[in-house]
Write a structure and sequence with these properties.
By secondary structure, this protein is mostly helical. The chain has one domain. It is 47% helix and 7% strand. Bound molecules: iron/sulfur cluster (SF4).
Amino acid sequence: MSVEPQPSAAVPLCRRCPRLGGPVTFGYCMGCEQQRPCPKVTDCWWETFDIVRYLQEHLPADQVEHLLRAQPKPKIVSLVELIAEARKRVES
Ligand code: SF4
């Protein structure tokens, strides 16, 4: 999923990712967990715009509820998953 909260914006929203340590777009955040939003998407974007409202307008209610209740995975688990995903991309 690569959606932007302001489809008319010429420049995509971007911020520093606390998990990756570099810049990512909002579109990345909305699809980086096997085409689903990152569990930290509300934590990371609430200061930029009304992310909860955006999610409610663009996702099924059960996915929004899941995101709002999501507890981020421990950093080591996220790192292991990111490494596994990177390996898959390199192998394919
Ligand atoms: S929502 Fe997830 S992928 Fe996006 S900046 Fe936050 S931690 Fe990184």
